[in-house]
Amino acid sequence: MAHNLEDKLTSALTAGRALGAGGFAAIDFETATAARASACSAGVAVVREGYVHEVRTWLIRPPDNEYDPFNVAIHGITPDMTADSPTLAEIWPEMSSFVNHRPLVAHNAAFDMGVLRASLAMGGTSCPDLDYACTYQLARRVWRGRLSYRLNDLAAEGGLHLDHHEAGSDAATAALLGVALCGVAGQHLIPDAVHAIGLRMRHLSEFGQTIRPSGFQPDVGAIPENGPFVGKTVVFTGALVLSRTDAAQLVANAGGQVATTISHAVDYLVVGVQDPEKVKDGVRSSKMIKAAALAADGAPIEMLSEADFVHMLTA
User: pTM for this one?
Assistant: First the structure.
């Protein structure tokens, strides 16, 4: 079995490199305790033209610099190593600049994205908007029937060097899996590879982890020919009664698409309940403020309540 995966992974890496797969980065976090908000190390690997181009690692001071012995035994990072390190919120501008708006991959991405979001929130920093894919889930889809899809097992059986639980090495190995998955899918870009494999890019924002809205396709037999959302772009802000996933699917079924940022291309901003701690002027979110400014300049953007949004869908 190990030899079989090594042959498959070698072939897939060769194909990915021939395609010049790149334009993405891989990320990995280690934590000091069982809490998601306890990041103590991070690694990011940038992929260009089918190869891991650069890897960077950071030591991070977790809250109160507290560690569980169990976590120390896993990754070897101790309190004295991070006593003088910055927090993730302090490091994030540098990490974000290194990622440079690239889509991310991570192995067991729900964990890493949860650590990023929780650790930033602990430091009073808003969660960034970014797209990501999970190499664990993609590997399960592509290399079926394996007993384990853990990063260390895939690396060992696939012939990849890995210093497991060293964040930079974990990120670099996930990056290589990303290249291989591009090779399997015959796609240069990771979002296209994810789609070709039959999964969807995910999206991280201040509201948590969701399926990337632009990846939604209608799941109904036919969409209306002259409905209010046909060919329109919708953005959501605030907490909705509907889940974001359900709301995005409703837009797709109505012939529209969902974006996450306000621009001249947006037709509707659907406004949910605003978090008083996140509004920018005491009343409005940053999306509402930007939409109002664009509307004042003549952009055909309209703000809707969630109730109006649902009524237009069902009218």
Answer: 0.69
Assign domain 2-208 one CATH number from 3.90.76.10, 3.30.420.10, 3.40.50.720, 2.120.10.90.
Answer: 3.30.420.10
- Count of CB atoms situated within 10 Å of the CB of 200: 18
Q: Domain limits of the chain?
A: 2-208, 213-314
Who's near 44: CB < 8 A, 6+ residues apart?
A: 25, 26, 27, 55, 56, 57, 95, 98, 99, 168, 171
Start-to-end CA distance of the chain, whole Å, equals: 57
pLDDT tens, the chain, 315 aa long = 445 899 999 999 999 999 999 999 999 999 999 999 999 999 999 999 999 999 999 999 999 999 999 999 999 999 999 999 999 999 999 999 999 999 999 999 989 998 998 999 898 888 888 899 999 999 999 998 888 999 999 999 999 999 999 999 999 999 999 999 999 999 999 999 999 998 888 888 765 656 556 566 677 666 777 788 888 889 998 888 887 888 888 888 888 888 888 888 889 999 988 766 666 666 788 889 999 988 888 888 999 998 899 888 876
Task: Please give the radius of gyration of the chain, using alpha carbons only, rounded to the nearest integer.
Answer: 21
CB contact at 8 A, 275 and 239: yes
